[in-house]
Amino acid sequence: MSLVVQKFGGSSVADADSIKRVAKRISLYAKAGHKVVVVVSAMGDTTDELIDLAEQVTPNPPPREMDMLITAGERISMAVLSMALNNVDVTARAYTGSQAGLITDGDHGRAQIRDVTPGRIQDAVDDGAVAIVAGFQGVSHDSKEITTLGRGGSDVTAVALAAALGADVCEIYSDVDGVFSADPRIAPSARRVPLISSEEMLEMAANGSKILMARSVEYARRYGVPLHVRSSYSGRVGTIVADDPEREIPLDPDVTLRTADVVRRDAADPTKELPMDDIAADGFAAPGLEAPIISGVAHDSSEGKITVVEVPDLPGRAAMLFDVVASSGANIDMIVQNSSTVDDTVAISLTLPEADAPAALKAIEEAREAIGYTEVRYNDQIGKVSIVGAGMRSHPGVSALLFRSLGEAGINIDMISTSEIRISVVTEQARLSDAVRVIHTAFGLDAEQTEAVVYGGTGR
Q: So what's the architecture of 3-285 in CATH?
């Protein structure tokens, strides 16, 4: 039997009925003989409510106390889910992040994992119990203080435990049936992607796909943990994120397959093999067939653009600018510098998360005299759309099709960034949804019938 780590998001454990439904799903694995470790997020909007409570008390809550407060949400979930499992005759034990052995640095609110020592979790599953772990939290390696891992922290908890325990698969449950070729709220014709490489998934996550956080995908890639992204509502096979085609993973309590064979299985019934013609019609890879050129279209409307005008075209000035931005703690995404003008100056544009913009703008303004620029501009009405696919490496003309489809739709391109398997463009935010749909159609990703259902209403 397999060792399976399952992570359930907040929408999956939002209330008592949801928790009972999750307990029933977990019990199917446990009663089939699998060893099961479960990581849970806080119920529904609990974390947001706790943050609101803190802000009503003080505008600047101490980071240590904030971590103590918001980790309570996951502790509630783990305890209640453990009770629900014991109620259906499945022995379960609940553990906090520190009890589970999640050792972090001391950076409250965005701690990084330093080590995982899951001795108590291993003992629990060896005893035949289901271990329920509070996600999103750990304990500092030096101060022994409670810490939180930041956005997507429960996904990271699950992947870290799966890696440390040598799990056969880490299942990430939310309220959608896996990873889709685009956000189904924007492109209703988006289709489920049954199998995707960790490299492609990392690019999708880093460029706006919200179903998985980039940090958890990177951790899984580093330690070779296969991920199965699926819905806790439907029970359908979702999306496998893996790189080893021969790796065998459990798709359901009674079905184990090589990752290469996942695309040949019906999403609703993994015991049913699809006809080869059906697979080819869907455009997905199967043994003997080439992978699609594009795996998906990601978008992000949460960035802003800073343009620094008339920077002297001298060695070291660009470095000075980016040192200043880095000192503000901002994470830069895209960079464009125009060619030198007749007056030997350049304009440098960069994009960054909107939340980072105020600090970055202040730091740039304070360094005006040292850098020597004349003006700084900020635009928060931009959007980024990206196409991702390993097939780009061997298919010419991808860029031409992307730019032609946007041009024919009258959508202007402001900035361009590329990697080996990704092309990103910045356009005006008002046309971002149009851009996603146009590109999705241009690359033949539209499904003939609706595949995407958001069961819980959030997609997370």
A: 3-Layer(aba) Sandwich (3.40)
Based on the number of CB atoms within 10 Å of its own CB, is 77 exposed (0-12), middle (13-18) or buried (19 or more)?
Answer: buried
Residue 255 makes CB contacts below 8 A (sequence gap 6+) with 270, 271
User: What is the CATH number assigned to the segment(s) 294-442?
Assistant: 3.30.2130.10
The span from the CA of 121 to the CA of 406, in Å, is 51
* pLDDT, the chain, mean: 90
- Could you report the per-residue pLDDT of 159-210, keeping only the tens digit for each? 999 999 999 999 999 878 899 999 988 888 898 899 999 999 999 998 888 8
Residue with tokens 């783990």: 78
- Pairing mode, if any, of strands 113-116 and 102-104? antiparallel
* CA 231 centroid distance within chain: 15
- Kindly state the helix (H) or strand (E) to which residue 406 belongs, with its residue range: helix 398-408
Q: With bands split at pLDDT 50, 70 and 90, how would you rate the model's confidence at 283?
A: very low
Reported residue count of the chain is: 460
Domain ranges of the chain: 3-285, 294-442
Terminal alpha carbon distance of the chain: 29
Instruction: Characterise 336 by phi-psi region: left (phi > 0), alpha (psi -120 to 50), beta (else).
Output: beta
Q: pLDDT, tens digit, for every residue of 360-374? A: 999 999 999 999 999
Name residue, tokens 């361009």: 416
Could you give the percent of the chain with pLDDT greater than 90? Answer: 74
